[in-house]
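Example: Lytic transglycosylase domain-containing protein.
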Amino acid sequence: MLRRRVFRPLMVLALCGVPLWAQAFCFDAAAAKYHVSPLLIKSMAIGESNLDPHATNDNRDKKTGKIKSTDYGLMMINSTHIPRLVSMGVIRDKNDLLNKPCLNVQIGTWILAKHFQVCGVSWNCLGSYNAGFRADRHETRERYANRIWKIYRQQTGAQ
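Written out as structure tokens, the predicted fold is:
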């Protein structure tokens, strides 16, 4: 009986710490692989999903309200990437983006690194992760970059 009263709370505490450790490991591993700041990746995950690995978001056409695409997981990987990720053997289907948070972070960081290769390492280019590259999306890229910058500054303790 005493063992059960001590063991259960310890197990709960141990299990509560796993996601924090796993998150830190995921961000660090992706950062090392793609040469991106782990704090920047974490800031993006906070901005994208509030660190909810099961988060989803439907992107709707502003005129018709019809769903155009869906975003999945910590880094809100857009469904337009799914066919390529499947053909590359990275994922089996969209469920991998929700059920494998470290893989989701790796994919999101890979996408960001590809964007940096196209438009250079800058806050505006970071905004392309959310808004794409079209010229008419400049303000949307800036809004996104500013939002992530604020989160990043909060993470560093700067005000």
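Strands lie at 56-60, 67-72, 77-78.
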